[in-house]
Amino acid sequence: MQTVAILGRPNVGKSSLFNRLAGRKIALVDDTPGVTRDRKEVEAEIGGIPVRLIDTAGLEEAAPDTLAGRMTASSEGALRQADLVLFVVDVRTGLTAADRAFAQWLRKAPCTVLLVANKAEGRLGMQSAMEAYELGLGDPIAVSAEHGDGFGNLHDEVRDRLQAEPRRGRGEERERPLRLAILGRPNAGKSTLLNTLVGEERMITGPEPGLTRDAISVEFRDAEGPIRLVDTAGLRKKARIEKHLEKISTEASIAALKEAEVVILVVDAIQGMDEQDLRIGRLAEREGRGLVIAFNKWDAVEDRTATRRKLEDTLTASFAQMKGIAVVPLSAANGRGLEKLMPTVRTVYDLWNRRVPTGELNRWFETMKERHQPPLVEGKRIKLRYATMPKARPPTITVFGTRAEMLPEDYRRYLVNSFREKFDMPGVPIRLHLRGTDNPYGEEE
């Protein structure tokens, strides 16, 4: 079993991150710096991989014989055991001299280090997370340990790093399942769909809405390999969530979405797609998950042409950032159309995982700049220099250049839409990060 250690200065949210990854509250959490003084360990599963997770005391520059010095020494002991370190910084506070000093120390560490930018709630938090690039530890993973934002992405990154590392005492590696979640409104047919997919009555079904109250995980195989499928409680409008149990069920459903790789959004084709369905889809997009719409009860639809056209119009108007979302009309009750669902899920998963080579990416990037020059901002030309694709899951482009961070929203959409079209990536979220820094291979102009 591999070891993952969480390090960082005091009060950046290490224990909140530990609890979130462990799936339960183990470490005490408080705004007072230094609450954690001893290492805490737990066995957990991150990105489908079993790990030994270690929470550490805050790193502080202090004399060895002081309490702070002994806490730091304990953290250094955890580093020596670790296969992977999650180095946590607080984007609300911004980078400190201590963050920079510890980052320099970790750059020399014998294990892999993943930079986690915590407290990155909302768009402003995501933008602030980009400041952490300067630590020289690679792309920061923006999360909110308090709210659970960004944890699907974090699970993916941890899994990738651990799979790339030789394991200490590693036995035969098990085949990793695709993580798939079924979401939708109450009584849309989610549990019936799960039962039909796995070929047995695993979930209680019936006409009463709300029969499923928890997120239930089931493992099965399709033609391409293992799948961990999670059926969730129906998500109602927030104003209608009143009972404590239903609030817990809703939280479990959202957690399942955040930890999934692909989401199947089950829509009742008779009722059509309503605002709550759109909210679920937007949450999947915001979390960077692949999305497939299962248009259920299709056999009971009378005017199929008009119903399909209305759905496509809704998707075009509501998901501008995920053009081309896959739609599979089916009947979960009798299995009609179901043979197309899992091949579609696998196609979306492959697109979500796809990387574009740097050379090919920059040939496209130069063409886009020639067709449409970046605009003037405050009387100065934005000079975009080059692009990289640091990660997939979802496909992520980082663009470097002078004043790149000032690029207007319409030009950002132009780049994302043309990237999607050029590299044939319909229906998956695409991330665009902008770094206003000099090209190391060229002089500033």
TrEMBL record:
GTP 1 binds at residues 8-15, 55-59, 118-121. Transmembrane segments: none annotated. Keywords: GTP-binding, Nucleotide-binding, Repeat, Ribosome biogenesis. It holds the Pfam family KH_dom-like. Residues 2-166, 178-353 form the EngA-type G domain. Belongs to the TRAFAC class TrmE-Era-EngA-EngB-Septin-like GTPase superfamily. EngA (Der) GTPase family. NCBIfam families: GTPase_EngA, small_GTP. GTPase that plays an essential role in the late steps of ribosome biogenesis. This is GTPase Der. It comes from Falsiroseomonas frigidaquae.
